[in-house]
Specification:
single chain, 10% helix, Porin, mainly beta, two-stranded antiparallel ribbon, signal, eleven-stranded mixed barrel, DUF2490 domain-containing protein, globular
Amino acid sequence: MKILRLVAAGLFMFGTLSLQAQESDLGAWYMYFGNNKISKKLNLHNEIQYRNFDAGGDLEQLLIRTGIGYDLTENNNNILLGYGFILSRPYVNDEKTENIEHRIFQQYITKQKFGRFNIQHRYRLEERFLEDDFRMRFRYFLGFNIPINNKELLPKTFYASAYNEIFLHFDSPVFDRNRVYGALGYVINKNMRIEAGYMNQIQENRNRGQVQIGFYNNIPFTKN
């Protein structure tokens, strides 16, 4: 019964946020994250994010990322070289504009476990090729996944998820943005899970909320 009440509360929260997204400046992000193990050490990362100014239909940004990663140690330490394509459609003076960015990035992910807390640190360096500019940016991500109805993140487990990520420019102004996120997730099976939550993005002159729905798919390596 406690789990049912928790799920109902989560669905109510998401429904409320979705309704608000249609009536305010609250945006919505729909995200897919895939990780395909192509050998014992190598993995192929693929990711699509469809970001809207509202609940749907008013595209803010389409982001596609891919990359090749290498496990330094099994399941806990991974380095990755990747590429991102970003199509942005911001409003400038109430007029919709369009910008395209190509991005190369390098990252290091390390994972730890303390009791029920599954912790992830991600350090990412980005080289951003904009239409009329070049920028470099550093990002640090600290995330937590905490199982609720089991001690481990096993299939059919509900979990709480939270993260904070800070973005820093290599030039002035140094501070770019900070993201704070909280969500309820569900482990479908050992390779798939889904999350629904809320992220608040803080920029120098702006503070905006985003409803987020994310689907995570990990494909293990199998020998032919």
